Amino acid sequence: MTGVALTAYVITPWRAWLDPGRSDRSQAFALFLLFIATLALSSMSYGILAIRHKARKGPLTGTREIGPPALLAALSVLVEAVGLARHEPLLIVFPLLGLMTALEQIRYWRRAPAERMHWWYAHMSGMGTASISAITAFLVTAVPRLVSEAWFRSPIIWITPGVVLGSLLARWAASYRARFELSATTAGAGQRPTRP
């Protein structure tokens, strides 16, 4: 995932400024690719660092923790401005999701953990968001080149992975939250924890 995301930082400048056949549409897609790569990298970093810092008791405000989501937040604002100026739905909807994701990640690092399994939920969120980003990027950039049907260029195709997989991720996290709470309750009562 890291390798794939980093290639976007090589491809994007070429598509946006150097490609002789560039157009407004290809530049918009290049900007989207840069944004989605940043979203994936920030989310992967978040998920991995959450496990490394699972024993933390207070906030963490280092560059490794705050840097990636801060970059994502700044890029989200920039892409949103470009999307509004160009009336590009793709560049209007996704930056709002990216900004919410970035703020959630920054909030996680800047606050002391409030839940016993905070790192687990952060890991699930980060890795799930990175996966959704990669699937979305594939559907938006690669599938229309492979399949000629016009409906593959519809904004519905772009938004569906986030809605469907995001809902499944939220349900998965909720099931683990219930499982961990039950485990903590039965352990605190002196009973042997059982799986729900």
Give a structural overview:
This protein is an all-alpha fold. The model has no long low-confidence stretch (mean pLDDT about 85). The longest helix has about 35 residues, at about 155-190. It has one domain. Helix 2 runs antiparallel to helix 3, helix 2 (about 25-50) runs antiparallel to helix 5 (about 120-145) and helix 3 (about 65-85) packs antiparallel against helix 4. It has helices at about 1-20, 25-50, 65-85, 90-110, 120-145, 155-190. It is globular.
Overall tally of domains: 1
Q: For the record, give the distance between the C-alpha atoms at the N and C termini, rounded to a whole number.
A: 33 Å
Mean pLDDT: 84
Beta-strand residue fraction:
under 5%
Q: Number of helical runs?
A: 6
Shape summary: globular
Annotation, overall tally of beta strands: 0
Which stretches are low in confidence, meaning pLDDT under 50 for 5 or more residues running? none
Order of helices and strands: HHHHHH
- Radius of gyration (CA) equals 19 Å
Instruction: State the share of residues found in helices, binned by percent.
Output: over 70%
* Biggest beta sheet attributes: none
Global structural class: mainly alpha
